[in-house]
Amino acid sequence: MNENFYKLLAAWAGIIVFFLLFSRIWWLILGFALYRVTMEYIKSEEDFVPKLKSALRGILWTTK
Fold it and tell me: Given this model, what pLDDT does residue 44 score?
């Protein structure tokens, strides 16, 4: 794994800890998003950004 991967994990950990303190529903949503985004990153780094954008769109759509 490269350095960016660990930065990604650190960012996700910070976000999850923040929301865990305030809302369990947000924690569940972000936990699922963390799983999906991390699995996509491990599978293919070259087309990671478009998949990240689509995952974020999906999260925003489900929270409306």
Answer: 63
Which sequence spans correspond to the domains of the chain?
A: 3-62
Rounded mean pLDDT for each run of 10 residues along the chain, 64 residues in total: 77 78 72 79 68 74 64
Alpha-carbon distance 13 to 62, whole Å?
A: 21
**Nearest to residue 41, comparing CAs of 29, 50, 32, 31?**
50
16 C-beta neighbours (distance < 10 Å), count:
16
**C-beta neighbour count of 33 within 10 angstroms:** 19
